[in-house]
Amino acid sequence: MQTLVADHPLVSHKLTALRDVRTDSPTFRRLSDELVTLLAYEATRHIRIERVQVQTPIGRADGARLAGPPPLVVPVLRAGIGMLDGMTRLLPSAEVGFVGLARDDETLVASTYAARLPADLTGREAFVLDPMLATGGTLETVIGMLVSRGAAAVTAICLLAAPEGAARLAGAFPADLPVPVRVVTAGMDDGLNDRGYIVPGLGDAGDRLFGEI
Ligand code: URA
């Protein structure tokens, strides 16, 4: 597993505003959307392309277009939904699958309550959207589902990550696995508190996006 912490002034600027406790939900949603689009630029760096030529008004130009089959974008319910528009804006040809996991507040263990994914992902590149890579339990489950269905590569896009979660994924998906697994994030924080929250983090991403329901 490879981890990339996006090092860009705009990413840092937007992440800092996102963290701020005074940022309200509408602004938090807008900033998440913008941040995902910036992270998606890095996350799609290895996406497969095919060479094509086009006719310009002046002459022939060598170029590229995304190779088939279409990529799959998988937001993890519920907070990943806040990242979907920002991702599909950059990848409009992508199909969208959904996975829902709920984390037990005591054990911090995540269990799957919904999964709407193609049964066969052979040759498909998958992008998982989950704002917070905390313990890594959720992403380990979701990435495992995609790898077991034949995905050619899996990239998780996270607004923030904790070293504990990154280490867990590195153990579950070692670099010599035939399927490349990557995490692209705007920041790697200090660690987790005893409730599994990222410190200093930004709080509960789902609540900040959609309210405390
Ligand atoms: N999920 C969140 O929403 N925030 C955290 O800090 C950790 C997990």
Summarize the structure.
With 213 residues, the chain is α/β, with parallel strands linked by helices.
**Topology as a string of helices (H) and strands (E):** EHHEEEHEEEEEHEEHEEEH
Shape designation: globular
If you compute it from the alpha carbons, what radius of gyration comes out, rounded to the nearest whole angstrom?
17 Å
If classified by CATH, what would the architecture be? 3-Layer(aba) Sandwich
Total number of domains: 1
Number of helices: 6
Structural key phrases:
213 residues, eight-stranded mixed beta sheet, single chain, alpha/beta, binds uracil, 31% helix, 6 helices, Rossmann fold, two-stranded antiparallel ribbon
Overall description:
With 213 residues, the chain is of the alpha/beta class. Strands 1, 4, 5, 6, 7, 8, 10 and 12 form an eight-stranded mixed β-sheet that branches. A two-stranded antiparallel sheet has the order 2-3. The protein has one domain (2-47, 64-210): 3-Layer(aba) Sandwich (Rossmann fold), CATH 3.40.50.2020. α1 (9-19) runs antiparallel to α2. The mean pLDDT is 95. It contains six helices and 14 strands. 31% of the residues lie in helices and 30% in strands. β13 and β14 (198-199) form a beta hairpin. The protein binds uracil. Uracil binds at residues 132, 134, 196-198, 201, 204-206.
In terms of topology, how is this protein built?
Layout lengths: L1 E4 L3 H11 L5 H19 L5 E7 L4 E7 L5 E6 L6 H7 L4 E2 L1 E6 L6 E7 L8 E5 L2 E2 L3 H12 L4 E6 L1 E2 L1 H10 L8 E5 L5 E2 L5 E2 L5 H6 L3
Parallel strand pairs: 1-12, 4-5, 4-6, 4-8, 8-10, 9-11, 10-12
Antiparallel strand pairs: 2-3, 6-7, 13-14
